[in-house]
Amino acid sequence: MARAALTRVIEPGDERAGRWLRIHGAAELMRLLTTPEDPDAPLTGVSAARLAGYRRRAAAADPERDLAALDDLGGRFVCPGDPEWPGQLDDLGDARPVGLWLRGPADLRIWALRSVAVVGARACTPYGAHMGATLGAGLAEKGWVVVSGAAAGVDGAAHRGTLAASGATIAVLASGVDVVYPRGHAELIGRIAQQGLIVSELAPGDHPTPSRFVLRNRVIAALTRGTVVVEAEYRSGSLATARNAQRLGRHTIGVPGPATSGLSAGVHELLRGEATLVTDAAEIVELVGEMGELAPVRRGPVLPRDLLGPATTHVLDALPGHGTAPTSDIARHAGTSTERALGRLYELHSLGFVERDGDGWRLTPAARRPPGTRRGGA
After folding, report:
1. Over the stretch 77-120, which tens digit does the pLDDT of each residue have?
2. Read out DSSP for 18-43?
3. For a tag site, which of 5, 14, 185, 290 has the least CB within 10 Å?
């Protein structure tokens, strides 16, 4: 009950109050904040005006009302030490959430064990939206939980892609779990509450502020094994999430975009540092997954010429691009004997690379075309 009350008192990421909470415990901290001020009170390190602000908020807190409102939504409140509390949030130290308000049927601790954050610009390009949705769907198909902030742009695309693939997704809000922001995501947030999880540090009814968006990002970073940034300018909340992930020892991952795009400039700056470049879900899983979860080897198409041995390739290269050449000339250019060259020529003939022309040999029309071109044009 004291922790539920303190979510009305302590702003997300407040390390000074988090230190008080660690030293005194939740119940004692609420008692200290709601009893007449003692000159010898142990709540030090802040100005008198700021301490008075904590006290005013503590006096107004009504945890029973907040818990009843959450119960009406079918939600729950979890604290450090509860079975559903994700232990990785403890890596935040004194900036750890006081508690978490949840909506949704899933177990947060279990889901967070195999989760990846996919974040990016709100005003994203069509490319950014496509990549967000594609990565969300791809991670879902590989059994990973996708965590994001339910914001416009890349966040929303990642959630939608995951849901479209019947996957698991968690939305970490910068408002109460009953406050829809942005308004246009009412349907999306409703679907996540039914099929996934809505998570917030803030009590029911609390509204988002610019600072709460930034501080919310540390929770996204701490919950997950890695953070993927799809599009981000130099000044971007998504970059803040990635930097939080770096500080916490999580994987920091970037999806490249056009070098001329300002919306990819922040991602490219990450990639010039310690971030890892990825292009699809398989490459993300190779980074954050278990040993042996490797992305497939990528290479261009195998051409018939790739299957020839070195000696046969030398003979093929010795034929003129146009016209016919005798076996002796071909052998000389290939640096081999006439007998060996003749054997290779018949091998090439059986594979369709050359054809006999009287006493000489010439390339077939198919062999003369550059690799990768089609008959009638490039």
Report:
1. 999 999 999 999 999 999 999 999 999 999 999 999 999 999 99
2. HHHHHHH-HHHHHHHHHSPP-TT-S-
3. 290
Range of the domain at 323: 304-368
Which has the closest alpha carbon to 211: 248, 184, 174?
Answer: 174
User: Do residues 261 and 328 both lie within one domain?
Assistant: no
Q: What is the tens place of the pLDDT at every residue in 316-346?
A: 999 998 899 999 999 999 999 999 999 999 9
Distance CA 108, CA 91 (A): 16
325-326 sheet: strands from edge to edge: 325-326, 360-363, 354-357
Whose tokens are 């949704």? That residue is: 104
d(CA 131, CA 133): 5
Q: Which residues of 272-291 are buried (b: 16+ CB within 10 A; e: fewer)?
A: eeebbebebbbbbbebbbee
CATH number of domain containing 208: 3.40.50.450
What is residue 315's predicted lDDT score, i.e. its pLDDT? 94
CA dist 38 → 43, 180, 201, 306 (Å): 10, 41, 30, 84
* Whether residue 54 sits in one domain with residue 97: no
132 found inside a domain:
yes
Tally of domains in the chain = 3
φ, ψ for residue 160, nearest 5 deg: -65, -40
Co-location of 118 and 222 in the same domain = yes
